[in-house]
Design the sequence.
């Protein structure tokens, strides 16, 4: 059915998360002492018609590294105790990775997807409040010239 | 002709406008045109009897931008030196930099200053094209995208040189503010240095690596003055057959757009890059790169070139179609139908399609008979190619949209009608002879023996000197399989080579050497000697690995402040004059170059600041036999160590002051060009004859740093005696160790070659000591009987391998 599908690709437990390690250092360098840990994940927003078997196939065959990564749908999930920052390219900014994913999906034989946009999801554990996440986003994660970001608590 | 406004094309009421209204039109439209230029445009449209459309005005603004036309360098400059007379430079570029090339008139320079890149001969049948570009303003705003499209753009310059060259090497030189700069020194609205550094390094990495082009040469330089305006120099070398160096457009040829689609990205890039950086820039100036697309364009283009399917090609860079199509058709005339251009999305106005700087696009002149073959080839490689117009013989640039003419300009007016700028330059700084008197000498402060070891460790850890492994190891320098001298040398590949050598044709022993020189810290004292030292450093690095100045060429890339400031312009004139004097002295022609002016920004207190006056000199040379090249790591115990070249107390702008946290005063390093030229030639002979086992140039940090690097790279110790250094006068130990006098090398020579080497370089060298087995760097002074440095190699290397 026609709609927007949000997919999140992150690292399996124990598989390491190199981006998160250096981000954690940068956050500490900013002076955020309370930070405990950081997680990163790629976000894909697919627009069009998609069956759920196709969705699983796209995630497993195209978006995930089967050794290190796993996927889930990108919906919010309560109870993780993390503050989450999502960063997307603004509409109109060329998203070349998104274009390549769209082509990859067509090459897999799924013709229903008209557009793919990519983004990043950062989870922070140990932040006192959302304002702190906003400061981190402005300093390290999003460039307001090309990105837009949103913050929520999981 | 468009007689009334349509919804998509506006008519700009210009012919009746007052001066202030003209300026307002320029400012509001982000055109970056001054009053004199606006008036020339007004006169043109008065003469032809109607007001311009937005397409026409935008075309002129793009074509006349500082970025495309180099107004300052081609203008008239009255240069005046306080108390020392004046001189008029009528066309600064022609009277200095291009004049060297003209006077030297080398037959192996195949294409200079007229195409997207300069071309020199590799052998009888093949040439190498070289171009270096800057992408500073986009990289300040969006480091990843800005730097990526910087390298993408210069790769397209190489693809658009002649009938297309195959990219075989990338180089990159970056100038940033230090990563640990305190937040209070970062102006509002400016990204933190660390973000800029990480973004720029990653942007160049992802583009170059994904296209399968090795990046094997570069430099990273740090100074607080680059905080809001980093410098990102990207260069590419290409391989081109001799019979593909020239292009020619014929009337009737199709105008073909090849590669990426057109969107709103990068609108006003050319005019924006000619303006100062201010807060509140729109996101439409940012371009995002797509390396895989460009790789496909490259593959298709090189095949089509060899099949002879087109007569001319150029890249869509600054100014987009308006510049590329206008440039290809400048000798004939051209008509474009904008509705045919493939778009990323609908809704673009004609002027937006016309000037958009969407990436990965090339424009070709294709004879109609070849079009079906080209189209089929493009389809087979999944590259979009579209006929968007044709070349004519009317010497007009005509732009149509759905059959309606939305712009028409005479080629003569567009390319020759720009009024030349007249500017005055005034140099009021103390002449260098006076600063000689007032300068700080190493004699004036005590540097104890213990301090010297400490200073050496600090110098090795200074970000400008320290290992660039954190960048180099992200870049693929092996792809294509041609590398000979790589970024790192030595047993563990952990010492810094001076230049890279690679074989662009694997079936030949001929190599190409690429190096660079960049010394902005000297320009504070005198931009003349800064430029002189940059040329010396680039050539010195080239000679150190086995290059020959007699078969080498250089490129200039100026990054400067506001050329309307007489002092800033005078500094630029001085640097250009040095380019003429020194390059002529070395007998090395310039084959291409580029300038980026208006690198100014507002600091935290709102004051307008300029970047340090910066000139990158990139050198390229041909090596006949790559088996004769030399690296910088020590090779064998018992070999002799020579310091080639004279040492003088020249510590002005030296890194010694940076680590001692003192004002960098003193005499700026001078190049004695006739002597240096002779030394370079003799050393080259010694290398070709096989006398030299290792060679390293002396640059930032002087003798002590070079000796340390050679030692830990090779894993052997050194025992050196400073009293043997060739000098012009008695010098202090600190000056002997840390002076940055140019034109010097540290050379390892086996005992058997000692007599021949000494005879060849007689009068230009001092024999300082030998390579020893113990893993220590020992530097003593036999005259004063002091041991000045005694450091284990591990400690030296640990200091050098610090990451910023």
Sequence:
């Amino acid at each position: 059915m026609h709609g927007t599908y949000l997919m999140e690709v992150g690292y399996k437990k124990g598989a390491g998360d190199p981006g998160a390690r250096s981000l954690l250092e940068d956050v500490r360098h900013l002076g955020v002492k309370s930070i405990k840990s950081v997680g990163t994940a790629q976000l894909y927003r697919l627009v069009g018609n998609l069956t759920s078997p196709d969705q699983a196939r796209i995630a497993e065959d195209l978006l995930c590294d089967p050794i290190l990564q796993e996927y889930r749908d990108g919906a919010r999930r309560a109870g993780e105790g993390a503050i989450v920052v999502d960063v997307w390219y603004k509409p109109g900014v060329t998203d070349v990775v998104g274009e390549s994913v769209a082509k990859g999906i067509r090459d897999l034989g799924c013709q229903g997807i008209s557009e793919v946009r990519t983004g990043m999801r950062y989870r922070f554990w140990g932040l006192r409040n959302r304002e702190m996440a906003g400061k981190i986003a402005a300093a390290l994660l999003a460039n307001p010239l090309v990105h837009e970001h949103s913050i929520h608590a999981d | 002709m468009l007689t009334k406004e349509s919804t998509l094309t506006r008519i700009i009421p210009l012919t009746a406008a007052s001066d202030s209204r003209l300026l307002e039109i320029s400012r509001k439209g982000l055109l970056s045109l001054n009053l004199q230029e606006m008036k020339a445009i007004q006169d043109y449209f008065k003469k032809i009897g109607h007001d311009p459309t937005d397409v026409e005005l935008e075309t002129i603004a793009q074509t006349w931008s500082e970025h495309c036309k180099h107004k300052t360098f081609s203008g008239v400059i009255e240069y005046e030196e306080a108390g020392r007379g004046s001189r008029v430079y009528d066309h600064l570029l022609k009277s200095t930099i291009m004049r060297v090339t003209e006077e030297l008139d080398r037959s192996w320079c195949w294409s200079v200053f007229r195409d997207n890149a300069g071309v020199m001969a590799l052998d009888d049948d093949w040439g190498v094209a070289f171009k270096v570009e800057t992408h500073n303003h986009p990289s300040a705003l969006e480091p990843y995208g800005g730097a990526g499209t910087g390298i993408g753009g210069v790769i397209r310059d190489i693809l658009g040189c002649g009938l297309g060259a195959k990219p075989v090497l990338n180089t990159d030189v970056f100038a940033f503010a230090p990563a640990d700069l305190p937040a209070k020194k970062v102006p509002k609205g400016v990204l933190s240095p660390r973000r800029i550094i990480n973004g720029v390094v990653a942007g160049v990495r992802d583009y170059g690596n994904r296209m399968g082009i090795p990046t094997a040469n570069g430099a990273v330089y740090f100074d607080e003055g680059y905080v809001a305006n980093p410098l990102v120099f990207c260069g590419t070398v290409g391989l081109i057959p001799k019979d593909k160096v020239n292009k020619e457009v014929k009337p009737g040829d199709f105008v073909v757009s090849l590669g990426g689609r057109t969107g709103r990205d990068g609108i006003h890039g050319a005019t924006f890059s000619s303006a100062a950086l201010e807060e509140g820039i729109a996101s439409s100036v940012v371009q995002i790169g797509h390396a895989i697309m460009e790789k496909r364009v490259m593959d298709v283009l090189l095949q089509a070139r060899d099949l002879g399917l087109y007569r001319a090609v150029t890249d869509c860079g600054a100014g987009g179609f308006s510049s590329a199509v206008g440039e290809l058709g400048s000798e004939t005339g051209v008509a474009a139908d904008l509705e045919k251009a493939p778009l990323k999305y609908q809704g673009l106005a004609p002027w937006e399609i016309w000037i958009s700087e969407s990436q990965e696009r090339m424009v070709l002149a294709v004879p109609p008979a070849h079009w079906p073959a080209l189209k089929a080839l493009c389809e087979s490689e999944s590259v979009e190619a579209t006929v968007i117009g044709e070349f004519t013989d009317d010497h007009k640039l005509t732009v149509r949209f759905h059959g309606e003419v939305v712009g028409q300009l005479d080629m003569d007016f567009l390319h020759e009608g720009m009024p030349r700028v007249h500017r005055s330059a005034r140099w009021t700084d103390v002449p260098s002879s006076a600063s000689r008197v007032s300068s700080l000498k190493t004699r004036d402060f005590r540097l104890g023996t213990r301090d010297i070891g400490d200073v050496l460790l600090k110098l090795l850890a200074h970000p400008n000197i320290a290992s660039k492994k954190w960048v180099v190891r992200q870049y693929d320098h092996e792809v294509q399989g041609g590398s000979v001298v790589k970024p790192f040398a030595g047993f563990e590949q952990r010492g810094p080579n001076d230049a890279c050598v690679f074989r662009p044709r694997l079936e030949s022993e001929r190599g190409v050497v690429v190096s660079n020189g960049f010394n902005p810290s000297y320009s504070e004292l005198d931009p003349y000697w800064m430029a002189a030292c940059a040329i010396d450093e680039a050539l010195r690095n080239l000679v150190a690995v086995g290059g020959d100045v007699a078969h080498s060429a250089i490129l200039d890339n100026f990054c400067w402040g506001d050329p309307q400031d007489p002092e800033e312009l005078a500094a630029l004139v001085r640097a250009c004059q040095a380019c003429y004097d020194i390059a002529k002295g070395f007998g090395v022609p310039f084959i291409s170059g580029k300038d980026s002016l208006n690198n100014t920004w507002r600091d935290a207190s709102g004051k307008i600041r300029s970047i340090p006056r910066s000139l990158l000199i990139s050198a390229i040379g041909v090596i006949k036999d790559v088996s004769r090249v030399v690296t910088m790591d020590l090779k064998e115990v018992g070999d002799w160590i020579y310091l080639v070249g004279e040492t003088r107390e020249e510590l002005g702008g030296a890194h010694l002051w940076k680590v001692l946290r003192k004002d960098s005063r003193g005499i700026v390093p001078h190049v004695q060009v006739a002597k240096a030229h002779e030394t370079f030639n003799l050393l080259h002979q010694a290398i070709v004859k096989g006398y030299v086992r290792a060679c390293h140039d002396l640059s930032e940090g002087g003798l002590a740093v070079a000796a340390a690097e050679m030692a830990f790279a090779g894993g052997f110790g050194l025992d050196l005696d400073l009293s043997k250094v060739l000098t012009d006068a008695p010098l202090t130990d600190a000056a002997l160790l840390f002076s940055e006098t140019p034109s010097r090398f540290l050379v390892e020579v086996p005992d058997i070659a000692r007599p021949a080497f000494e005879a060849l370089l007689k009068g230009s060298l001092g024999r300082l000591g030998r390579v020893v087995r113990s893993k220590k760097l020992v530097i003593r002074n036999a005259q004063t009987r002091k041991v000045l440095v005694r450091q284990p190699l591990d400690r030296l290397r640990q200091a050098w391998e610090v990451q910023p």
User: Anything to note?
Assistant: The first strand of chain B starts at residue 76 and ends at 81. The two ends of chain B are 60 Å apart (CA to CA). The first helix of chain B runs from residue 19 to 28.
